[in-house]
Amino acid sequence: MERRFSDIIQLIKQSRTNALKTVNAELINLYWNTGEFISKKLELAEWGDSVVTELAKYIQKNEPDIKGFSDKNLWRMKQFYESYKDFPKLSTLLREISWSHNLAIFSRC
Fold first, then answer.
1. DSSP readout, the chain?
2. Cβ neighbours of 91 (radius 10 Å)
3. What's the whole-model pTM score?
4. What is the C-alpha separation between 18 and 22, in angstroms, rounded?
5. Largest CB tally within 10 Å, which of 22, 26, 35, 46?
6. CB 96 within 8 A of CB 102
């Protein structure tokens, strides 16, 4: 009987894998866009460096359920964007790997 249902198990597993890839790509897009926003604000001198810390505190205070946006991580998002903004083909491929793998790669470059 187990053999009859193995195709369904494969469909379930494939759908879960696809869902995780989609979520990962969307998170990488979010981090890219956040990094771009911060980078441009700093570049145009609309923000000083301390504003990034203020932003992190604001997010934590007003949206305590939103995790992963500490000042340290916000700076990483900026660095992520700035490291790859001039490489559009590469930046597309970066959405295929996890944030932790992206951090490992660009922190060593």
1. -HHHHHHHHHHHHHHHHHHHHHHHHHHHHHHHHHHHHHHHHHHTTSS-THHHHHHHHHHHHH-TT--S--HHHHHHHHHHHHHHTT-HHHHHHGGGS-HHHHHHHHH--
2. 16
3. 0.83
4. 6
5. 35
6. no
Cα angle value 5/6/9 (rounded, 5°): 95
Average pLDDT over residues 19-48: 92
Residue-wise pLDDT for 3-31, tens only, equals 788 889 999 999 999 999 899 999 999 99
Side chain identity, residue 9: I
User: Is the CB of residue 78 less than 8 Å from the CB of residue 39?
Assistant: yes
- Contact between residue 24 and residue 60 where contact means Cβ atoms under 8 Å apart: no
